[in-house]
Automatic annotation (TrEMBL):
Belongs to the UDP-glycosyltransferase family. PROSITE patterns: UDPGT (PS00375). Keywords: Glycosyltransferase, Transferase. Coiled coil: none annotated. It comes from Eucalyptus globulus. One of its GO terms (molecular function) is UDP-glycosyltransferase activity. It comes from the Eukaryota. One of its GO terms (biological process) is carbohydrate derivative biosynthetic process. InterPro entries: UDP_glucos_trans, UDP_glycos_trans_CS. PANTHER family: GLYCOSYLTRANSFERASE. This is Glycosyltransferase. Its EC number is 2.4.1.-. It holds the Pfam family UDPGT.
Length: 440
């Protein structure tokens, strides 16, 4: 089986968010070089933005497959994605995704894949795969500590999570509860998580590194009974003119929009730090706001010689790899942290939502950055922002953080193809086992 002549056909079904689709596409590219043929399935509106990211190198081994969601009164096709989706329609999108099960079943029947790799929000997909005799692997695009924490709180809520470094502050729990209110949901997110793990065949796939997340991977395995397998321009010209490790990159991901108060405190914090910076700011779709209006009066003029503020998008990967970058002010989205650590860039952690506070605790636990502490009301403060930036990037006391970040980068880069080898072995063995069972 390990030397199969025929490529293994994999059908991938990520959740309808770009922050989920991108890791699936990354995995697809890695697997496609190892005798796997990938069918990546999503809604037309998502596929239209994915298509340009598939170069000629992968065009014959990665195919895009359209999944049509049912028409609902409040959910036209351009809302069949989380990008630009009004928050109050999130549960509606999940309902529509659930209702796409029959259409997905037709796709499985038509393509005849060997296995399904899917996300945590659609446990029904594993049932569809099972009905066609296919194994399923759930792929978590966040770290093992987050999934193990969530799984623990669902299954063992009365007992304390065994790793004290991983915790939420009260104001974070309140914020998460408000953002994730699923009281009107047909299926609660915690049930989706449980069912996804239960229906994953033999193992769970995670985007992380064992050196960083090993004990949490093991704990997740003990909770779930499943093995945890891990796998881990003009702006550049502007950076070229800066000294090595002298510049801060500031970005809060593609789906979080800073409040006016947060923008104000971050702007003053950057100004007080006296460091060079690139700050990527995004606004909700449909909101036309000029940067001058969104930031403190006179800010852009005062920092024009050392600060670059960008409205919309920037090539984060290229920026983090640039030698002039000395720190990353991040919301602690898992993908961003992985990129930062691989690039050897220390992290100034400012978690906002979801798993980000736990990721920020991880940053400090591992020693690759520091979290900006908030006041008792959970608000960011400019003096604290400036203090943490200077500590991580400039001051002598930050030597240990910078050294640890360099060590973590070396570990991650030296892993090379080791992680994907384990993923390939696990998937091949699963297919072999299922083939043997179906022929016996």
């Amino acid at each position: 089986m390990e030397n199969m002549q025929r490529p293994i056909k994999v059908l991938m079904l990520p959740w309808l968010a770009h922050g989920h689709i991108s890791p699936f596409l990354e995995l697809a590219k890695r697997l496609s070089t190892r005798n796997f043929h990938i069918h990546l399935c999503s809604t037309p509106v998502n596929l239209s933005s994915i298509k340009p990211k598939i170069s000629d190198k992968y065009s014959s081994s990665i195919e895009l497959v359209e999944l049509l969601l049912p028409s609902l009164p409040d959910l036209p096709p351009h809302y069949h994605t989380t990008k630009g989706l009004p928050p109050h329609l999130m549960n509606t999108l999940k309902v529509a995704f659930d209702m796409a099960s029959p259409g997905f079943s037709d796709i499985v029947k038509s393509l005849g894949p060997d296995l399904l790799i899917c996300d945590l929000f659609q446990p029904w997909a594993a049932e569809v795969a099972k009905s066609h005799g296919l194994p399923t692997v759930v792929f978590f695009i966040v770290g093992a500590r987050t999934i193990s924490f969530m799984f623990h709180m669902i299954k063992n809520a009365s007992s304390k999570f065994p790793f004290e470094a991983i915790r939420f502050h009260d104001y974070e729990l309140a914020k998460i509860g408000k953002a994730a209110d699923d009281s009107t949901a047909r299926v609660k997110d915690e049930d989706r998580l449980l069912q996804s793990v239960e229906r994953s065949s033999n193992f769970i796939l995670l985007k992380t590194f064992r050196e960083m997340d090993g004990k949490y991977m093991d704990y997740l395995s003990s909770l779930s009974g499943k093995k945890s397998v891990n796998y881990g321009d003009s702006i550049i010209e502007w950076l070229d003119k800066r000294e090595q490790s002298s510049t801060i990159f500031v970005s809060f991901g593609s789906e979080y929009f800073l409040t006016e108060k947060e923008r104000e405190e971050i702007a003053h914090g950057l100004e007080l730090s006296n460091d060079n910076f690139i700050w990527v700011i995004r606004f909700p779709v449909g909101e036309s706001i000029e940067l001058e209006e969104a930031l403190p009066k006179g800010f852009l003029g005062r920092v024009r010689n050392r600060g670059l503020v960008i409205d919309g998008w920037a090539p984060q990967g290229k920026i983090l790899e640039h030698p002039s970058i000395g720190g990353f002010v991040s919301h602690c989205g898992w993908g961003s942290l992985m990129e930062s650590m691989k690039s050897g860039v220390p992290i100034i952690a400012m978690p906002m939502l979801h798993d980000q506070p736990l990721n920020a605790r991880m940053v400090e636990e591992v020693g690759v950055g520091l979290e900006v502490k908030r006041n008792e009301s959970g608000e960011l403060e400019r003096l604290e922002i400036a203090k943490v930036i200077k500590h991580v990037v400039v001051e002598k006391d930050g030597d240990s953080v910078r050294k640890k970040t360099k060590e973590m980068s070396d570990i991650i880069r030296n892993k090379g193809e080791e992680e994907i080898d384990e993923v390939v072995d696990a998937l091949v063995q699963l297919c072999a086992r299922c083939t043997e069972q179906s022929t016996s």
